[in-house]
Amino acid sequence: MTEAGERFYQRALDILEQVDATQREISEGQSEVKGKLVVYSPTLLLDKCRHHVSQFVREHPDCELELHSTALGQRAVLDRRFDLLIYIGEPFDSSFIARPLANVGYDYFASPDYLERCGMPEIPEDLFKHRCIYRSRNEQDPVAWQFGDEELAINPDIICDSPYMTNAFLLQGIGVGQLPLILAASSVAKGQLVRLFAGQYAFRQNIYGLYSSRRYLPHKVKVLIDDIKNDLPGEIEALESLLENPPDTGEMSPTATLS
């Protein structure tokens, strides 16, 4: 071996030792629930999971949990650093690892007061004669509602990006709209909202935990994902079960009678 070759060889050994030390350091750090953990999630899920999140914080005091809402939009979230993104619907970026966590139901609702004034829609096409409140998650999405295998393009009177605002408009008797069952259930149980089409067109969407790498998934992220996966389905089921025995809404006009 030449003198230059010997220097190259020794330098290569030094680099390999540094790489090995770095890998050991990362591996040891991966096994601990500590340090900053940045999570983005829809506000609705943050709200419903607040007790579980609080429990996670109590159990792992060395973990600095940073929670953000995804209300600012998908593109804005992708421009930020995060450890975990909770997402409702099919993943929009195939470069992320997507782990199914639960699923949540959606359906169409209106207030009894609105239905008394404007009548009960019997078929989806009847919505063309109603004031529609549309919740848009992305500017790129078509303005349409799903009814079974068919999509119905609508001309909404109100567009907003918050399920809470949609719910508020519906409770005020302004129109008809689509809501997650976990948000609408308590209002239906109290007689404040009525489920349209007898629940015939309810549908479900998957909830995923998205993260960027499987190889170096920090242990703190894995622990949080496991906690959510264990707790969230039961939380959703408990809230949606309120819809199984809706109250008697009393006498309504013939045009506002459920089919």
Low-confidence stretches: 249-259
- Derived structural class: alpha/beta
Distance separating the two termini: 89 Å
* CATH class (first level) name of the largest domain: Alpha Beta
- The CATH topology label of the largest domain is D-Maltodextrin-Binding Protein, domain 2
Q: Report on the biggest sheet.
A: 9 strands, mixed
- Total number of helices: 8
Helical coverage, percent range: 25-40%
CATH architecture of the largest domain: 3-Layer(aba) Sandwich
Alpha-carbon Rg, integer: 25 Å
Q: How many domains, as an integer?
A: 2
Work out the strand percent.
Answer: 15-25%
The CATH superfamily of the largest domain is: Periplasmic binding protein-like II
Instruction: Name the overall outline.
Output: elongated
Number of strands: 11
Q: Quote the average pLDDT.
A: 83
Element-level helix/strand string: HEHHEHEEHEEEEHEHEEH
Give an overview in words.
By secondary structure, this protein is of the alpha/beta class. The chain has 2 domains: 29-103 and 206-240, Periplasmic binding protein-like II (D-Maltodextrin-Binding Protein, domain 2, 3-Layer(aba) Sandwich), CATH 3.40.190; 104-204 and 247-256, D-Maltodextrin-Binding Protein, domain 2, CATH 3.40.190. Helices cover 37% and strands 25% of the residues. It has helices spanning 3-30, 43-48, 50-59, 74-78, 112-118, 163-171, 181-189, 219-240, and strands at residues 35-41, 63-69, 84-88, 97-110, 132-135, 144-147, 150-153, 158-160, 176-180, 194-195, 203-211. The strands form 2 sheets. Strands 1, 2, 3, 4, 5, 8, 9, 10 and 11 form a 9-stranded mixed sheet that branches. Strands 6-7 form a two-stranded antiparallel sheet. The longest helix has 28 residues, at 3-30. It is elongated, with a radius of gyration of 25 Å. The termini are far apart.
